[in-house]
Structure formats: C-alpha cells, structure tokens
Amino acid sequence: MAIDFKGLVAIVTGAGGGLGRQHALALAARGAKVLVNDLGGARDGSGGSLTAADAVVAEIRAAGGEAIANGASVTDWEAVQAMVQQAVDTWGRIDIVVNNAGILRDKTFAKMDLADFRLVLDVHLMGAVHCTKAAWPHMVAQNYGRILLTTSSTGLYGNFGQSNYGAAKMALVGLMQTLALEGAKHDIRVNCLAPTAATRMTEGLMPEAVLAALQPQAVVPAMLVLVSRDAPTRTVLCAGAGNVEAAHITLTQGTWIGLDGDAPERLAEQLEQACDRTAEMVPANGSAQGAHEVGRALERLRPA
Ligand code: NAI
C-alpha cells in the first residue's frame, strides 16, 4: 500500500543538505507539510545561516509541496520550542519529528578535548531530546506521533576516532527504548535509523567508488517506513545502498554462577557460557531483563 503523509506535519532537523534534505523532499513529495530546519553550519558545527534551509523550502515549493524554513540550532532549547510552535502556528499540529541534525568532531579518545566530546553529545543527544520534548505534548494531546532518532553504526558497533559521536548515537538508542514504552498509549511510535550515505559527513572516510554506491536517497525508504502511519515502534533499522537491516540489543540465556564467595571464579570459568549466543532474546523492557535473572535465581534457590 502506498505510504502517504497527507494532512500530516513533519519537522526534519539538519535538512539543509545531505540526508536531511532528502528526507524533507521525500516527506513533502508524499504529502507532508514540512518544516525544514537547518543551522547551516560547517561539518564540525561551526558557523550558521538560514540559506541551506531556505533553498530546500524553495525546492519543495517548486515541486508543489508545502514547507517553511527554520534556522534554530537544535542545541538551543528556547529556539527549538519556538520552532515547534512555528510548525503548530502554521499548520495546527505536529505529527512527525525526524531528528537528523548532526556534526562530527573526530579524534582518538586520547587526543580529544572534553569540549569536543560535550559538543557532539549536545548536538546529537540533547538536540534530539529538545526537539522530541517540545513536540511530545502536542503528540500526547492528539494521540498521534512519530519520532525518528538518527543513530549510527558507530554508536551500535564503534568506529576508531569517534568515541564522542558513538556515545551520543548509542544514547539515542537508549532514548528510543524508553520513549517507545512511554509513548505507546498515545500512539507515539519511536524508532532509530542508522544510515550509511555519501554526504559531506562521510567525505574522506570511504573510498570514492564506495561513496558513489551510497546515494543518500537510498536511505529514504527506511525513514519513510519508520515515520509512516503503520510504523513499527522501538525498531532500529540500518539502511544504505538499497539494503536495510535491523539491529537488536540482545540478551544471552546466561549462566548461573550462584551467590557464594566463589561466584567470581565460577564466572571466570563460565564466561564463554554466559556469552553464548544460542537462544538469545530481546527483552520487552529493562525490567524484563531483571526478571529473567530473578527467575533463574528462584529456580535454583527453590528448595528441592
Ligand atoms: P550533513 O553534515 O550533510 O548534514 C547534517 C546537517 O545537520 C547539516 O545540514 C548541518 O547544517 C545540520 N546541523 C548541524 N548542527 C546543527 C544544529 N545544531 N542545529 C540544526 N542543524 C544542524 O550529514 P549527513 O550525513 O546528512 O548526516 C545526517 C545525520 O545522519 C546525522 O545525524 C549523522 O550523524 C547521521 N549519520 C550519517 C551517516 C552517513 O553515512 N552519512 C552515517 C551514520 C549517521
């Protein structure tokens, strides 16, 4: 069935270029009214101007769509609140937030300044928190919302020189896990997208031939599905070059090491078994993971 967004309002952050621009164009092409946010800064987050967002708005309008521009930095809570209000004042609602804005400040952990660590957390994590938090009460009130958080393979699996970025990106997965639970009763669905695409963010990081295969447009279908009316919730999709995979935070069955003083030595002996991936699962929530452990313990401690 065709995926359409007629009558729905979306905010896409960092939509002046790269993936965000493609996301905004695709949402608008399928009927969404789109607030195109972009600070317009450099890859490292320095500088800023509205020009990039304005150009995307012009593109959407030229194609017959509806869009407005916004130059807020997602790190600025006051400005983000005003941005959500701008969408609500213009179109009366806010249905979709695609948290896409991001920067890089790559260095090995040994050489990284804490200021660069904090800035990357601020843009990726707090930026998404701000935009989601400002839209949330509107979504609760209308019993409908779709939140997309842009994570990364670096967050999920690590990449040399990206400790700040990886920490921020994995924090977004943690944010999704709880927001998906809290949003469920208001039909607010929260998902993560880990894209791989040739943009200025990946310039110099991959060989030219590989970058050529990684059109940003190839990530868009996964975004559209994750914010659609029939979207899943609490799903992490990786997408790039026309392929889509799901990433899961799994739990092994584990091993019983007991409660006595020899437990550390027993764990050292049984570590392989604790990490054995046969029959691993995805707990429904954090409490379910704790319950799995307590259940195991009660089985073992039950008097014969
Ligand atoms: P990009 O650098 O082309 O786009 C990022 C956009 O965010 C820029 O237009 C920039 O002006 C904007 N931005 C930066 N700081 C902002 C702020 N404080 N407030 C508002 N806008 C701000 O990069 P790309 O590749 O399009 O990245 C988009 C998202 O996808 C980012 O979150 C990135 O971390 C993520 N990502 C990209 C991957 C890739 O392969 N390109 C891989 C994994 C994740």
From TrEMBL:
Residues 8-196 form the Ketoreductase domain. Coiled coil: none annotated. Keywords: Oxidoreductase. One of its GO terms (molecular function) is oxidoreductase activity. SMART domains: PKS_KR (SM00822). It comes from the Bacteria. Belongs to the short-chain dehydrogenases/reductases (SDR) family. PANTHER family: DEHYDROGENASES, SHORT CHAIN, SCP2 DOMAIN-CONTAINING PROTEIN. This is 3-hydroxyacyl-CoA dehydrogenase. It comes from Rhodoferax lacus.
